[in-house]
Design a protein that fits this description.
Layout: H1 10-24, E1 25-29, E2 31-37, E3 40-45, E4 55-59, H2 65-72, H3 76-83, H4 92-112, H5 117-127, H6 143-157
Antiparallel strand pairs: 1-4, 2-3
Helix pairs in contact: 1-2, 1-4
């Protein structure tokens, strides 16, 4: 496979990855509900400490490795090859950026979504995460207990 000519350069791969993420998300101004009278409210932009409206990324479609591969016109096996430091050292910045953006989405979803059971299942069973969540006795929490714990934290943030 090393002898096979790759159609991507490091820059074109970065551009294609950015295009994939741009196609599934949007940037919006964060707003909050402000009471304007008896039983009337208005959505107003939330301002940062610098007085600028806070903008945030909102994913309309969850990013996936398969979706990324489809957008790049490659197979998951080719993506795995791109991720191999020895085989493709030239692509490491691009694949790390793609992985970081996917991680950003997972973190945002865990912290802001109401029902994250599917995401917890995926992280636990495919990525080995959330294993450190245990009961006070040291026994591991069940998947549903982890979900309730995360949902409770989400409710406290509101």
């Amino acid at each position: 496979m090393k002898n096979k000519r790759c159609r991507f350069t490091p820059r074109s791969l970065e551009t294609a990855i950015d295009r994939y993420y741009a196609s599934i998300r949007r940037t919006v101004v964060a707003t909050e509900r402000v009471e304007t009278g008896a039983k009337t409210f208005e959505e107003k932009p939330i301002l940062s400490d610098t007085g600028e409206p806070i903008r945030c990324r909102e994913y309309v479609v969850a990013p996936t490795v398969w979706g990324l591969c489809e957008a790049l016109g490659i197979t998951p096996a080719q993506w795995k090859s791109f991720c191999d430091r020895e085989e493709h050292p030239e692509f490491q910045d691009a694949v790390q950026r793609a992985a970081g953006l996917m991680e950003e989405w997972k973190e945002q979803a865990l912290l802001t979504k109401k029902d994250v059971r599917g995401l917890i299942y995926h992280i636990q069973n495919h990525l080995g995460g959330l294993d450190e969540l245990t009961r006070e006795s040291g026994e591991p929490l069940s998947l549903s207990e982890k979900g309730r714990l995360l949902e409770a934290e989400d409710g406290e943030a509101d």
